[in-house]
Amino acid sequence: MKSNKRLVKLLTFFMLFFCMNVWTNNPDEKSSNHFTIMGLGDSITQGGEDAYLCSLNQMLDSAGYSVEFIGPNVRTCNGLPLHHCGFSGKTIEFLEARIDTIYRKYPADVVLLHAGHNHTYTEKPVTGMIAAYKSLICKIREINPDAKIFVAQVIPSGKLPKYSYIPELNREIAKMVRKQNDKNVLLVDLSRNFDWKRYTHEDMVHPNHAGVEKMAGAWYAAIQKYFKN
After folding, report:
1. Taking the CB of the first residue and of the last residue of the chain, which one, N or C, has fewer CB atoms within 10 A?
2. How many CB atoms lie within 10 A of CB 92?
3. Which of 196, 117, 119, 122 is nearest to 158 (CA)?
4. Under 8 Å CB-to-CB from 220, ≥6 apart: which residues?
5. 64, 227 contact by CB (below 8 A)
6. Could you tell me the domains of the chain?
């Protein structure tokens, strides 16, 4: 009788342990916290001394997300490699022309798109840029309908008149994302309260350390909000 009671207690213990282990490793909870990210853009995404992708990675890691940044390019963040798709000096049209090849090789769950510089106001570039945005998004969605594409209204610049088209571009980006009417294509306003006098280097274009932190915080808030819904 005593041996039978011991066996029952032992079996009860293992059943409780199994149930607790299943509960704490809920597959749905895990999938919402583990994903790959592609940071897609120009030199602002690539980063210089600081990079918003590095700061974002730290924020996500501190919040308990298991994230892998992927892409053909790599930089060092706190002594560790971080992969990305930032191409210095390149435009949204450059990215659109190559996204099919890039995304098939690096099919990220989440794409962070910030690409609005490297044109000049004399080109009157906004119409062509919006067309490239639409095509790029469409190409990603054709490859992976479940991809989450976060589209940024880009940070303003004090380098004028070269970048005086950016306010118009940001208005058109917002319109474009709304017209997409797609729950997986989301607008992130990185231009909001971004004072280039405070948040950029002397070139009045690239974010300084405070600017990088501000950009990363906006990306983080958008990602966190999406995955909590």
Report:
1. N
2. 29
3. 196
4. 56, 59, 60, 63
5. no
6. 34-228 (3.40.50.1110)
Summarised one tens digit per residue, pLDDT across range 133-143 is 999 999 999 99
Burial-class residue 23 by CB neighbours within 10 Å (0-12, 13-18, 19+): exposed
Strand 148-153 vs strand 73-77: parallel, antiparallel, or unpaired? unpaired
Residues 6 or more apart whose CB falls under 8 angstroms from that of 155 comprise 44, 114, 190, 191, 194, 196, 199, 200, 207, 211, 215
Q: Which two tokens stand for residue 25?
A: 């490793």
Tokens of 186: 């989301």
**Model-level pTM?**
0.85
Between CA 79 and CA 120 the distance in angstroms is 36
How far apart CA 48 and CA 229 sit, in angstroms, is 34
Please tell me the total number of residues recorded for the chain in this structure.
229
In the structure encoding, which two tokens stand for residue 181, read together? 């009417």
Higher pLDDT, 28 or 2: 2
Cα separations in angstroms, 46 against 42, 54, 89: 6, 10, 10
